[in-house]
Prior knowledge:
The chain is mostly beta strands. It is built from 3 helices and 6 strands, in the order ββββαααββ. Strands 1, 2, 3, 4, 5 and 6 form a 6-stranded antiparallel beta sheet that branches. 17% of the residues are buried.
Amino acid sequence: MSTAIPEPSSNGADEPTSDLYDLRVVVERIEGRSVCGMAVGDHIDLVESSRLRLPDGGHFCLYALQAVLPLLPAKQRQLPAGDWLERDDLVACPDPEERLIMRIERTGIRSIPTDELT
């Protein structure tokens, strides 16, 4: 992974764009008892800056999701190499009985017109 922070690009029409990663949040392991019905490998995708997508028929626990949500906007951007969030990608669900551990993965990058970002 490059350590340089990408500059805002342009789509050729003098409209600035921002490069954002699409993300996948994956259940990596469950060290306790699963009470929310999730299993290792379950996931949710964050694409096109702000769209959450579940696989057909899938679900994702609201409480696990709330634990990871604050980190997603930062993980969508290239961060300096020394930033802890550039290196770390594991998040724990707040349920102490479950001990569900999620991993944030970058799945792709896209250039989005900056004016279209929320």
